[in-house]
Amino acid sequence: MRTHTWSAAQVKEGIADPGVKRLTDLPDPLADPVGARVTGRLRDRGWLPQSPEDGFGAGQPQFTYELPLAGRTEADLLGGMNQLWRRNIKKAAKEGVEVRVGDDIKAFHDLYVHTAERDRFTPRPLSYFTTMFAAMRAEDPERIRLYLAHHQGDLVAAAILVRVGAHAWYLYGASSTGKREVRGSNACQWAMIRDSLAAGCDVYDLRGITPTLDADDPHVGLIQFKAGTGGRAVRYAGEWDLPLRPKIYRAFDLYMRRRGR
């Protein structure tokens, strides 16, 4: 459930303003009245919000980036992107990058592990992805798709798209360190956006971002990349706890905070 949204222009202005450090520092966000009522009632009933500094909790991210598709054309979507995104999409096409939907989960996972080593995050095992594809395809063969971008026979980027009803999600991505200049990741994204539009989706969801707008924070590149598509940053209600034993809850919360330092 959404509580606030910020336009791509607001995000861009915030990054350029040294006095703005987080999305929540930006003035005049678009507030969702339903989200406000729900979160207000949770607080009134003793629930406590879990709002980690980086925007990622134990489960789903509280901040995401979404590209509205309803009522728009491919030309509209390209026109809403920044100059760098449009140039990179054209660059990929000019270099001959080919994006196809495939089934080689092992090839994706190999590239994903390479990406994890380069970007210093812990990758999920291959079994996680094979199980995910099997479960989702058993429900609907078109529920999940794997996009593979090749350049002259080399796999340069790959991404996973999930679609439920009129909502499409970019779930996981990977890219090679070599041949980054051919812009395989942009080609993958554009292919998924176009297919989501053709499937009648209202939203293309680029998933989690951190709320930082601090130009010196290494995480700011994530929101810069996604904001280049146009669209909007979105804050959701996030995760909440109901302390049944307040004293024990506070002690445990303090312990977890100190452990995370």
UniProtKB/TrEMBL annotation:
Q: Which GO molecular function annotations are given, in alphabetical order?
A: aminoacyltransferase activity
User: Which residues constitute the signal peptide according to the record?
Assistant: none
**Lineage, highest ranks first:** Bacteria, Bacillati, Actinomycetota, Actinomycetes, Kitasatosporales
Task: Identify this protein by name.
Answer: FemAB family protein
Q: Which family does it belong to?
A: Belongs to the FemABX family.
User: What superkingdom heads the lineage?
Assistant: Bacteria
Give the GO terms filed under biological process for this record: cell wall organization; peptidoglycan biosynthetic process; regulation of cell shape
| Keywords noted in UniProt | Acyltransferase, Cell shape, Cell wall biogenesis/degradation, Peptidoglycan synthesis, Transferase
